[in-house]
Amino acid sequence: MDTEQVGEDMDGGPDREHRQRDQQAYVLRTVEERGVRLIRLWFTDVLGRHKSVAISPAELETVLDEGLQFDGSAIDGFSRVQESDVLARPDPSTFELLPWADPAEPSGTIFCDITNLDGTSFEGDPRQVLRRNVDRARAAGFEMFCAPEVEFFYFADSGPDPQPLDRASYFDLTTTDVASDLRKQTLHMLEALSIPVEYSFHEDGPSQHEIDLQYTEALSMADSIMTLRLAVKKIAMDRGVYATFMPKPLNGVQGSGMHTHLSLFQNGRNAFHDPDATDGLSATARSFIAGLLHHAREITAVTNQLVNSYKRINEGYEAPRYVSWARNNRSALVRVPIPKPGKVDSTRIEYRALDPACNPYLAFSVLLAAGLRGIEDDLELSPEAAVNLYDLSRDEQREIGVDSLPDNLNEALDEMEASELVREALGDHIFEWFLRNKRAEWNEYQRQVTPFELDTYLPNW
Questions:
Q1: Mean pLDDT of 36-56
Q2: Residue 31: in which H helix or E strand, if any?
Q3: CA pair distance 256, 155, nearest whole angstrom
Q4: Any bridge partners for residue 201, and if so which?
Q5: What is the C-alpha to C-alpha distance for residues 357 and 246, in angstroms, rounded to an integer?
Q6: 142 with 271: CB under 8 angstroms?
Q7: Can you say how many angstroms the Cα of residue 148 is from the centroid of all Cα atoms in its chain?
Q8: Rounded to an integer, what distance in angstroms lies between the CA atom of residue 184 and that of residue 169?
Q9: What whole-number distance in Å separates Cα of residue 320 and Cα of residue 332?
Q10: In this structure, how many other beta carbons lie within 10 angstroms of the beta carbon of residue 388?
Q11: Maximum distance among all alpha carbons in the chain?
Q12: Mean of the pLDDT values across residues 390-399?
């Protein structure tokens, strides 16, 4: 990942209010000049599901100035009935024309922050949670940049027996990669939405694909992930197939991850690089990694929020099972890629546990909070895992001080519930709602009789 230009994008120049006015003027001018007929206001619920409400151009200026009032109690994780109304306030810097709209009726889209009626940040809005954590990092002098590798599957339909569209494998470019046209069309769509893509290719699994996004700051990247998921699903649906970001949809096949590259910049320079260190890693980078490892078990319920997420982690492949770090060891939870010669700004780390079904706003929030805590507490980084951890017994792993990620969602929720760091990062509102919702999901899962149980036990007992 080349991040030479990242430092130039740090916050600066005119104050935020002045930029906001300029951006609003641009949005209004573009809507008028392009004859836009509909503007879709986008936001997400606590689980990271896309929400949308449409307004006409006649309402746009008022909504930009005052926000759009709606009943928050109808959205999962938002308001309770007795405190229901909230405001969707568009962020004009995110405005884009929708490339899939009917040319005869152009449409635009814009991401929103959710606020209370008095204009204060709404505690149930995941985007505001990430903004708060980003502002906290900025107050400490840091800006976090991210680059995710988003994996997903194409299937013939959304039925209970997933049917892949091909049997191709990693980097295949053959007639067996019948979904390559779908992926190409998606790349064109993302480009039209101002989302730059670094790589795109067929992954290891049948009908599994990956799209890697170019580095940008955390809030913009979370918006881009939401847009990418929508675009992938939309284009697949238009072609009569189904795209899924479910972490582990197939037995015996690797699941879909969202390995995410992270770096901090300070005063326009990569804070993870130290030219005087033998390995090039700064003390800031080492403490950031130590923070991620120290709090890894606590944040896993957020980075891997589904019952199904742990089927991917437990099966291995390239999913990290163990809390460790290494420079080029893909069995580690945190990998430190070797930067290209002369590209010091590409010094970064890769957190490998995330899956593409996470809420990116909340996932980036807890990653940033854990890393910053490591810096604040000046945590010492444990020794590098130089061996393939899957080759070691559990006793041997314990002997070298390697812990494991939670085995299932229930264990992850127990760790999260005891975490002061996660509560602080998410805020009480989302923290408590998330726990209640996910406990209910786990309890419902526990009551289900699965095909495995029927196949294994019914004939013999």
A1: 95
A2: helix 16-33
A3: 14
A4: 210
A5: 6
A6: yes
A7: 7
A8: 17
A9: 6
A10: 12
A11: 73
A12: 68
d(CA 388, CA 332): 8
Q: Containing H/E element for 42?
A: strand 38-44
Q: What is the DSSP string of 207-269?
A: TEEEEEEPPEEHHHHHHHHHHHHHHHHHHHHHTT-EEE--S--STTS------EEEEEEETTE
Mean pLDDT to the nearest integer, 254-258: 95
Residue with tokens 């494991």: 404
Q: What pLDDT digit, counting tens, does each position of 126-180 carry?
A: 999 999 999 999 999 999 999 999 999 999 999 889 999 887 766 665 544 456 7
pTM greater than 0.85: yes
Say if residues 113 and 222 touch (Cβ distance below 8 Å).
Answer: no
How many angstroms from the chain centroid is the CA of residue 127? 12
Q: How far apart, in Å, are the Cα atoms of 57 and each of 51, 53, 108, 287?
A: 19, 13, 10, 49
Q: How does residue 6 score in pLDDT terms, banded at 50, 70 and 90?
A: very low
Find out whether 349 and 289 touch, Cβ atoms under 8 Å.
Answer: yes
Bridge-based pairing state of the strands 332-335 and 322-326: parallel
What would the two tokens of residue 457 be? 């036990």
Return d(Cα 432, Cα 435) in angstroms, integer.
Answer: 5
The average pLDDT across 413-417 equals: 98
Structure tokens belonging to residue 105: 């009726």
Q: Is the pLDDT assigned to residue 231 strictly greater than 80? A: yes
Paired residues of 146 in beta bridges = 216, 262
Residue whose structure tokens are 């120049």: 13
Q: Are 263 and 145 in contact (CB under 8 A)?
A: yes
Between CA 417 and CA 25 the distance in angstroms is 45
Rounded Cα gap, residues 357 and 229, in angstroms? 9
Complete domains list, the chain, with CATH: 10-118 (3.10.20.70), 131-456 (3.30.590.10)
Q: At 452, list the tokens.
A: 């495995």
**Structure tokens of 228?**
């990418």
* Contact between residue 110 and residue 41 where contact means Cβ atoms under 8 Å apart: yes
Specify the residue for token string 């779908």.
182
Of 177, 215, 178, the closest CA to residue 198 belongs to: 215
Q: Count Cβ atoms below 10 Å from residue 358 Cβ, excluding itself.
A: 26
